[in-house]
Design a protein that fits this description.
Blueprint: H1 4-7, E1 14-15, E2 39-46, E3 56-61, E4 66-68, H2 71-76, E5 84-90, E6 93-98, E7 103-108, E8 114-119, E9 121-122, E10 125-126, E11 129-135, E12 138-143, E13 147-152, E14 157-163, E15 168-174, E16 177-182, E17 195-200, E18 205-211, E19 216-221, E20 226-231, E21 241-246, E22 251-257, E23 263-266, E24 269-273, E25 279-283, E26 288-291, E27 304-309, E28 316-320, E29 327-333, E30 339-347, E31 349-356
Antiparallel strand pairs: 1-2, 2-3, 3-4, 5-6, 6-7, 7-8, 9-10, 11-12, 12-13, 13-14, 15-16, 16-17, 17-18, 19-20, 20-21, 21-22, 23-24, 24-25, 25-26, 27-28, 28-29, 29-30
Protein name: Surface layer protein
């Protein structure tokens, strides 16, 4: 989910998406593996409305071109819960972060059949999980109570919680470290956090905090060891910004005003959505903006909400939340920015993940 002011205005349900984009040499930090198989299809997570308990996980099968609107409900005979915030595949399992319900749904990645539903709570108090990343058989889950949960992906149990900053959001891994954006989103309108916590993945301890612009949310890493942090600012006097952190030194090497929404990196390029319906193309090797709009055929997107790139096909997927209260769409573009197809999905579609055969 995006920054708090926007998120808590949204509703969302389900969506679906698919492949997307080029690839580059990768720093060997254990944060992922190169794709080795062709895709089976894509899942789309739609958030649904806050307190409406209507998040959905939809599936699009490439072989038969079949779309199942709520695959999770179909195979498990129950809903996902309230406000699905993130979904990622790790190994044979898929992990779905459900924020308001304060749960992690672990499912079979090929079928979406539930393996385990995990409560993320402090006693009876919801921790409100937000985002999830993986490293060496550990899952790391940012929680709005100011912690990062550490889950063993074999036993599917949470081993510990690491204290970070206020209301952490997105995370990324680079050079054996976990970078966590501390948004302070619950401090709206003028008491945001403006730090990125650095966690050593060997000791599982926070080693420092890096100062960025107020209200950081999205975090991604490129293959060159740089970590990109998008901050929203305070919506009035402090502008949105993009900080680039050198993970070798943990120093902010660049920070500039940069209006943006979601970001995905593939190869030498970052694809960054803007609220005006465009998708910026940023070269992470040269650290220069190459195109104000990657979309080359005039396709109009009302409210870009999420972006994903398929490293195998080069396709770029952009989710459109429309008005955040009715069903949205997923747009699939080829690597030149030309629309290939679009799919009607659920309310506030935000995440797309790719499934291998």
């Amino acid at each position: 989910m995006k920054q708090l002011k926007l998120k808590f205005l949204l509703s969302s349900l389900l969506v679906l998406t698919i492949l997307g984009s080029c690839k580059k040499d990768r720093i060997e930090d254990g944060s992922g593996t190169e794709p080795t198989a062709e895709r089976q299809g894509i899942y789309v997570l739609s958030q649904g409305g806050i307190n409406l308990n209507n998040s959905t996980l939809s599936y699009f099968d490439y072989d038969n071109r079949a779309f199942t609107f709520d695959q999770f409900n179909k195979v498990n005979n129950r809903g996902l819960g309230d406000t699905g915030n993130d979904v990622q595949v790790y190994g044979s399992k898929m992990y779905i972060v459900v924020n308001v319900s304060s749960t992690i749904e672990v499912v079979n990645a090929r079928t979406a059949v539930s393996i385990k539903k995990i409560d993320v709570k402090n006693g009876t108090t919801a921790r409100q999980p937000r985002s999830i990343v993986f490293d060496k058989n550990k899952a790391f889950i940012s929680c709005f109570d100011g912690t990062v949960a550490v889950m063993d992906t074999a036993s599917l149990t949470i081993d510990k919680y690491i204290t970070v900053g206020r209301n952490p959001e997105g995370m990324a891994i680079a050079n054996g470290k976990l970078y966590v954006a501390n948004s302070g989103g619950l401090g709206w309108p003028n008491n945001y956090d403006k730090t990125v916590s650095v966690i050593d993945l060997t000791t599982l301890t926070e080693t420092k905090k890096i100062t960025v612009v107020d209200n950081p949310g999205s975090v991604v890493a490129d293959q060159y060891g740089d970590v990109y942090v998008l901050s929203v600012g305070n919506y009035t006097t402090i502008n949105a910004s993009m900080a680039i952190i050198d993970s070798k030194t943990d120093v902010v090497k660049s920070q500039k005003d940069f209006t943006s929404g979601s970001i995905a990196i593939s190869g030498d390029y970052a694809y960054i959505t803007k609220w005006d319906g465009t998708v910026q193309l940023f070269n992470v090797k040269t650290e220069l903006l190459e195109k104000e709009n990657f979309i080359s055929d005039g396709t109009s997107i009302t409210s870009p909400y999420g972006v994903a790139v398929d490293d195998i096909s080069g396709e770029v997927f952009v989710t459109d939340a429309k008005n955040y209260s009715t069903n949205g769409e997923v747009f699939c573009f080829d690597k030149t920015g030309t629309l290939r197809y679009r799919i009607n999905v659920g309310i506030s579609p935000s995440k797309v993940v790719f499934i291998n055969k």
